[in-house]
Amino acid sequence: MKTTKVSFQINNENVTLEVRPYETLLETLRERLVLTGAKEACGMGACGACTVIVNGIPLRSCLVLTPEVEGADITTIEGLRQNGNLHPLQEAFMEKGAVQCGFCTSGMIMTAKALLDRNKKPTKKEIVRTISSNICRCTGYKKIVEAVEEAARKTR
Amino acid sequence: MKDDLNIVGKRVVRSDSLAKVTGEARYTADLQFPNMLVAKVLRSPYPHARIVGIDVSGALKVPGVKAAISGFDSYGVKWGVFRYTQDHAMLHTDKVRYIGEDIAAVAAVDEETAIEALSQIKVDYEPLPAVYDPIESMKDGAPQIHDQYKNNINVHIHIDVGEVDKAMEKAFLVREDTFTAAGEAYAMMEPYAVVASYKNGYLDLYMPNAGPHVRAKALSNMLKLPLNRVRIRHINSGGAFGGRSEVAPGDLVASLLAIKSGRPVKLVLSREENATSSRQVHDIIATIKTGMKKDGTILAKDYKVIYDGGAYSSTGPIATSIPFYVYEECYRFPNVRYNGYRVFTNKGIRGMYGCHGRAFLAGNEAQMDVMAKELGLDPMDVRLKNGLRAGEVTATKSKITSCGLKETILAAAEKTNFKKRWAKPSKLKGVGMGCVAIMCGFPMGFRSGSSCYVKINDDGQVTLVTGLVDNGQGNESMVIQVASEVLGVPMRDINLVCADTEVTNLDPGAYSQAAAFVGANAVRVACENARKQVVSIAAEKLGVKEADIGLKDGAAYSMKDPDKKMPISWVVREAFFRGEPIVATGSFFPNIDFEREWVTRPWGQMAGTFSFGTSVAEIDIDAETGRITIPRFTSAHDCGRAINPMAVEGQMEGSIQQAGVAAITEGNLWDKGHLLNPDLLEYKVPLACDMPDMDTIIISSRDPAGPFGAKEGGLTVRMNAYSAVACALTNATGELFTELPLTPDKVMKILERKKGVK
Helix B715-733 and helix B744-755: axis angle, to 10°? Predict the structure, then answer.
């Protein structure tokens, strides 16, 4: 089967891979790189559970083909810890009780991180609007919104 | 009840959350084993067809395919929760009964090969007439879906208490209405997945499940393997909501492929397969007749409820009963008749749902409001008047031992200024109240109780072993918190081994809302037994009386003279020296009448205790579009004592989303046997932007038998939130709903009916 070579940076490491031209970034992450924090919950970009950050933009990795990320800088949930310390969003999700089954959590945190990276002081409305791209079936979102607010306060 | 608690009752960080925020938590689809194969399932394109033949030999010729199976490779053992409902072989050889039914499967070295191999399987079908509507299905001459069920009636639950007909005659006001509701999708975020591995005669399985022990038993029957040879292992579960309670076709498929290939097999369903071919929720048609006295006292209820059961029995008798019971556990019905029919149709398999029964429950509550209005009464007062109290017995003879119903009604009403707002609703704005009670556990035979094993290790850390299951609601963290309270050891120093059939004891699982009342109780008892051993040695070593010993922060100390203390690890080492290590077991078996049977003897004590709850929804209706918005939602829940209030709030908030907001957005749509919205774009799970401002109120009633007074934590909201929305619609429009969900098209019909326009 014809493969194509692609190089990119992921969680501050350079990788070069031979992938099938139609392989999704989610498949590459989960199956080749064993980064299974990103989840497949719908496979059609509806739920956001597979969200990773590509060049600063939160993308649904199930809708991105791996050859498209040539040269990109990618961050996944596994790359959020800095020097062993949790990211303020990770801490806030724990402390505010924003995690239940956990299947949406990686995508939710990555979506929120991209928001905080571009907007240090988001209003509650902006947070709600942003995370409305992601589906959570367990929490009713209230504690997720509170966690993002708390993380924003801490990172300021 | 002891109230000076250190950990229980505190808003603690859940023990499982670190792994989940770092992406480290493993779910079934994340598992990778050496030589693992990928499985794919061939599914029926017909709603109803005779299978003339299945030939999988073509698939086996595809390079990379290691096994191919159909029902002819199984024993054809039919599964059902009860002996009289065993009708589901999971892989059938005679007929298919719904679109998406598992017919054959392959295991191959990769997904592409597996998909290619599916196309090489030949199945000869002889299509049969199909039926999709339960009313049509019950008629004489309708296509017969199973030979053994006449008129396609799977289950008939008949309950008759008092003298309903006489009471109706005596009633001042009698009203009969019919309500329908589309079944919902569980839409748990994790699509169904199973990993099976067969080595040395032992089958190891991983899958999201609500009860590993019942699952292992079912599979041991179907595979004709001894029970100890089927081991269900612990794995994180990405949500269940009732949809992971029963053995699934994928379990059999993956097991057969693993046995045949000798290699580990992973089957991951797509979102669409999860909807069409794992389990769905029953569509319901509820006819409710109520007789009331002039003062609002309910004299009689007469019910006929039809459940669209899809193709197989599943938890049939339970699903046909639960909506009735959660209602009779809430209100006093001196005379009541319930006829519940679960009817087969050529649609997907259906199971219990955390929000099960919305047509029935919302119908009852909304009708109560209309009747109250006609009698010039306030609906809150009517609920208080008819609500059960501690010490009372339900119509089917369950005693209520603790009850905070009244407190939940008053708290929710006060928070929302309910009485005033209900009496004078603004134009197209409404407020509505829904109440319900929930059994904490129900009869599951010898699996109704739970047992825990605890050991304290030589470093003072604790290992708990229990069959308890966590599907995301926080059960694991809950029992660690309970153990921490009893043993005085910090939560971080307690390891939990759970939900693994080889090492853990029987437990009801995350099913029947038993985890807090039953599972956590067993953990409490085990830890209390271990504590006695610790206290005995510590008292001797510190030279104080046993009654003077306290345990806190990993140390034993004299309460009178706190300077006298020693680490628990020293106590444990001393115990090892004596050849009597600190190990203990503990069990809890709830007070349930085990003569009770869902069909043949529907009376007797249903559960050890009951939780109670009240929700109040505030809605706005857009007159032009019929769109409902829900600006505010208030729920009050009597959970005995909240072990972790933050977790209980989370359950309540999630329930407001999954039952309350879902009442305006969620429902499966069908075109005959085709599910039209199996994905997450067309099936509308509420998003953050759809959510109301939420107030959650925890009412403490301190159940006498619950662990630290606890009962289940939040399910009442899951079964009263839609009622609150439906009642708010009635308050805003003066009209009863007829169909859920209350999507704009249905609301427009109600507004037009109100205007008198046809």
Answer: 40
Q: Which residues span the domain enclosing A100?
A: 88-155
Check if CATH label 3.30.365.10 holds for domain B17-24+449-588. Answer: yes
A105 and B658 within 8 Å at the Cβ level: the answer is: no
Tokens of residue B520, six digits? 């956590």
* Chain A residues lying within 8 Å of B23, measured CB to CB: 35-38, 76-78, 106
Three-state DSSP state, B697: strand
pLDDT value, residue B2: 60
- Residue whose C-alpha is closest to residue B635's, from B699, B695, B713, B714: B695
Average pLDDT estimate for B161-189: 98
Token pair listed for A130: 């942003």
Length of chain B: 758
Q: Which CATH number is B283-443+595-755 given?
A: 3.30.365.10
| Rounded-to-integer distance, Cα B724 and Cα B362, Å | 7
- Calpha distance B315→B218 (Å, rounded): 13
* Distance separating alpha carbons of residues B21 and B13, to the nearest angstrom: 12
Q: How far is CA B409 from CA B180, B294, B730, in A?
A: 26, 22, 19
Give the Cα separation of B151 and B673 in Å (integer). Answer: 19
Candidates A38, A102, A135; nearest CB to B687: A135
Which two tokens mark A135?
Answer: 């589906």
Alpha helix segments (H runs only) across B270-338: 271-277, 316-328
What tokens does A32 get?
């080749």
pLDDT tens string for chain A (156 positions)?
689 999 999 999 999 999 999 999 999 999 999 999 999 999 999 999 999 999 999 999 999 999 999 999 999 999 999 899 999 999 999 999 999 999 999 999 999 999 999 999 999 999 999 999 999 999 999 999 999 999 999 988
Query: What's the pLDDT at B757?
Result: 56
Q: What was the pLDDT predicted at B111? A: 96
* B14, B189, B653 member nearest A135 (Cβ): B189
Is the pTM higher than 0.95? The answer reads yes
What is the spatial distance between Cα B361 and Cα B615, in angstroms, rounded to a whole number? 13
Interatomic CA distance for residues B324 and B232, integer angstroms: 33
User: What chain A residue is nearest to B656 in terms of C-alpha separation?
Assistant: A140
Position B755 confidence tier, pLDDT thresholds 50, 70, 90: confident
Containing H/E element for B67? strand B65-70
User: What local confidence, expressed as pLDDT, does residue B743 receive?
Assistant: 98
Q: C-alpha angle with apex A53: A50 to A56, nearest 5 degrees? A: 155
Q: How far apart are CA B56 and CA B68, in angstroms?
A: 6
Quickly count: other Cβ atoms within 10 Å of residue B20's Cβ. 28
Close Cβ partners of B225 (under 8 Å, ≥ 6 residues apart): B203, B219
Q: Which pLDDT score, from 0 to 100, does residue B511 have?
A: 87
Q: Are residues A122 and A55 in the same domain?
A: no
Q: Could you tell me which of B509, B427, B425 has the C-alpha nearest to residue B210?
A: B509
Residue B277, pLDDT score: 97
The domain segmentation of chain B, as residue ranges, is: 17-24+449-588, 31-128+195-239+244-277, 283-443+595-755
Q: Provide the shortest C-alpha distance from residue B85 to chain A (in Å).
A: 31
Q: Is the pLDDT of residue B585 over 70?
A: yes
Distance CA B461, CA B408 (A): 40
DSSP state of B601: B
Q: How far is B567 from chain A (nearest CA, A)?
A: 29
β-pair partners for B38: B108, B266
Of A47, A89, A94, the CB nearest to B189: A47
Question: B31-128+195-239+244-277 in CATH: which number?
Answer: 3.90.1170.50
Whose tokens are 């205007």? That residue is B755
Residue B750 is predicted with a pLDDT of 96
Give the mean pLDDT of chain B: 97
